[in-house]
Design brief:
The protein is mostly helical and 119 residues long.
């Protein structure tokens, strides 16, 4: 499953017309969520376009590296979830995403500097 997801995102990086999920929060309110543009950023990073990836979302290259590592781990151990993954890791990542999002929101809507692409 992780290798399939990674492969799909790599392919989506070359063919952006492939289907994907839209952000429901952004569709309903116009306000981007903490992971808005992360799919495109990850796809760009998987295709070696790191500058574009970071412009879309700073976590793009990190997500791409994590997906690659997860894919290798899942194929090697034949386990979907890594044994070393703890709930605290997920809380940390969620907290970092929220901090990054809050900064982008403050820049975009507070200061008037466009911190999100295409807004």
């Amino acid at each position: 499953m992780p290798a399939g997801l990674t492969g799909y995102l790599w392919l989506k990086g070359w063919h952006s017309a492939l289907p994907g999920l839209s952000c429901p929060l952004r569709a309903l309110t116009g306000i981007p969520c903490p992971t808005c543009f992360l799919t495109r950023a990850t796809a760009a990073a998987l295709n070696g376009r790191f500058g574009e990836s970071v412009e879309l979302h700073a976590f793009g290259p990190i997500a791409a590296a994590a997906l690659l590592a997860w894919s290798v781990q899942a194929l090697w151990t034949r386990r979907l979830l890594p044994e070393a993954l703890k709930g605290s890791h997920l809380v940390l990542v969620a907290g970092l995403l929220l901090l990054y999002w809050a900064g982008r929101m403050g820049l975009t809507y507070g200061v008037g500097i466009a911190a999100f692409p295409h807004i």
